[in-house]
Design brief:
- By secondary structure, the protein is of the alpha+beta class.
- The protein has a single domain, classed as Cytochrome P460 (Chalcone isomerase, 3-Layer(bba) Sandwich).
- Strands 1, 2, 3, 4, 5 and 6 form a 6-stranded antiparallel beta sheet that branches.
- The termini are far apart.
- Bound molecules: heme C.
- Heme C binds next to strand 4, strand 5, strand 6 and helix 3.
Length: about 160
């Protein structure tokens, strides 16, 4: 159980409690593995929601804005893959994938600031989290001035 992050527990509980609203039919975009990819990001604080190793992927539409700032064009997409941390000879290494998240600029998603937010299990099935309570509210609080995008281009250099 220790390996399961707090966030995953939150997600599991919410899966039972809620039916995904706007993200109801979302699927992971094909080929995101070929998009611009961040360096490995490690969060070693076990109390953090983001404990683990993750990589951010940014598509062609979003990347110029990600680099220089501004409003993202319709259809812009971000994906993050999260992994457990495996200790390989004292070096933290990506272990099992535990979660994938998606943001896609979509003006129909009025409740979540014009972005579709969707969470997936490691196998790519929707985890059924509530995109307002479990995604949007934190992104709004953290990244109001960057069109709800929190990560930074610096993670790619
Ligand atoms: C407690 C706050 C919080 C919650 C809740 C949260 N996120 Fe995030 N999210 C972050 C942070 C912090 C980053 C930046 C990570 C980095 O810098 O590598 C991020 C980054 C992202 C990104 C990459 C684009 C960006 O904004 O940098 C996507 C996609 C994403 N989150 C989707 C989701 C989805 C979908 C959910 C709901 C299942 C969710 N997030 C819930 C804090 C949150």
């Amino acid at each position: 159980m220790k390996e399961i992050t707090a966030l995953l527990m939150v997600l599991a509980v919410t899966t039972i409690a809620t039916t995904a609203l706007a993200a109801g039919k979302a699927t992971l975009p094909k080929g995101y593995a070929t998009w611009e990819k961040s360096k490995q990001q490690i969060v070693t604080d076990k109390n953090s929601l983001f404990y683990g190793i993750h990589y951010t992927y940014v598509d062609k539409k979003a990347f110029p804005v990600y680099k220089s700032g501004g409003k993202y064009p319709e259809g812009s997409q971000f994906v993050i893959e999260y992994f457990n941390i495996k200790d390989v000879g004292g070096k933290p290494t990506a272990g099992k994938k535990n979660m994938v998240v998606l943001m896609r600029k979509d003006k129909k998603q009025k409740e979540t600031g014009g972005w579709l937010f969707a969470g997936f299990n490691a196998d790519g099935r929707l985890s059924g989290v509530d995109p307002v309570k479990n995604c949007y509210e934190c992104h709004l609080k953290t990244a109001k001035t960057t069109d709800l995008v929190i990560s930074k281009f610096a993670e790619f250099k």
